[in-house]
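Suppose a colleague, Dr. K., hands you the sequence of a protein chain of 490 amino acids and asks what its three-dimensional shape might be. Before reaching for any lab equipment, you can write down a predicted structure in token form. Begin with the sequence itself:
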Amino acid sequence: MVDIRSFPLVIILILLLSALFMPLIKKARMVKGLSLASMGVSVILAVFTLGYVKENGHFIYQIGHWEAPWGIEFRIGMIEVIMALLFTMVSLLVMGYSVYTIEKDIKHSKVAFYYLLINILVGSLLGIIFSNDLFNCFVFMELSTLASCGIVVVKDKKENIKATLKYLVLSTLGSGLVLMGIAFLYSITGNLNMTFAHKEIVNVYTAYRQTVLITLGLFTVGLGVKSAMFPLHTWLPDAHSSAPSTSSAILSALVLKAFVLLLIKIFYRVFGLEVVSEFPILHLILILGSAGMIMGSVLAIIQKDIKRVIAYSSVAQMGYIFLGIGLGNKQGLMMAVFHIIAHAVTKSTLFLSVGAIIEQTGYRKLEDLKGIGKEMPVTLGIFTVGALSMVGLPLLPGFISKWYLALAAIEGQKPILVGVILLSSLLNAVYYFPIVINAFFGEENLGDKVFNAKHKPYRQLIPIFLLIAAMLYVGTAAKSIINMIDLGLI
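The predicted structure, expressed as tokens, is then:
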């Protein structure tokens, strides 16, 4: 009989083992097929695991013959399986789009290497989400960082190499801080297993207040660098804007989110809200999250390159997630997790649609995109839906996040944050709406443009249409998704 509880481990093994075979395959078409097949099977296994958790609740899966705290274990709850389904589904759709476009971004000889990196990246991100062991999370984190650098530098151009080196240096710094945090935590608890570490920290934190404060700070800054928390985001615009569009979609939609989820696990599963609330760390995250929401948008407004606009938009959107965490209440945490889902499906849509525009026209500068809506109306329509979600149009997931974050701010007796959310939404409109309006109605550039002249074949746009469908589903089914997130927080 098949043990569904083993499926999370099976998903990671499928992704990692299939990656090992990719360099041995000579035909790019077969490599792409193997990548899509491994992602497709992972989606199916994630669906089965979600059904099992809905029926039976969270479970612990022991890996190997040693029980915790000596052995490694996965803790699989509702949030973990939702994220597993999100990560595998978005990866499947992004890779489905890449089948038609990747050779236009990288050399044919590097196609197998690219898909190898993608499978390793997604597998390691899921390892971070599933693992209940801090050092195991660190190992997966380092593996994901190397794979992330790989999918940026694979384009093999000067700007990619420069962006990757910047990313690698800052990410290594973040990793070092996280490792120091793990060492401090181990020194006062004697455990790396999250469950056992929590039992110890509750009993001893009053005797080690300074150590606990330093440890929380190390985790916050270290993971803040990796998840582009303002002002630790400086690597992100260069990496996201210079990478292939499919890499940008994966980096923004998934990679940033895995590190935020690890921070949430450390705060709420290792330390516990009762302990964390004794220190000013949540107030710091709240301030930085609010600053990120505003400054990310301000920096996006002054950009002239469309991919850099979307990259800085990610800084602003990560600010919403950190705002939810920093509120320190259940409503805020639920909406931080929900916004992870909303942003993943929306931002991957935006990066892929912009990638299609750049591929067909060769234009990246905003001034060159005026009137492009006449030549690529469908693709620009897709971009518009994603932009409206980011701005916060009702029924779309971006609106749901902002609405409930505002309610969480009121519940936390911080009504001034409602104004911050409104200002951020207004700033989102300031840089998204002119792009859309000028693209559709840029009169000075419309004269020589032919309707549908640069339209991509519909079969190539199917993955983006499916992402749009996922976005609309997240918006319309928000209540049920939030209820499932609520169950995962119990």
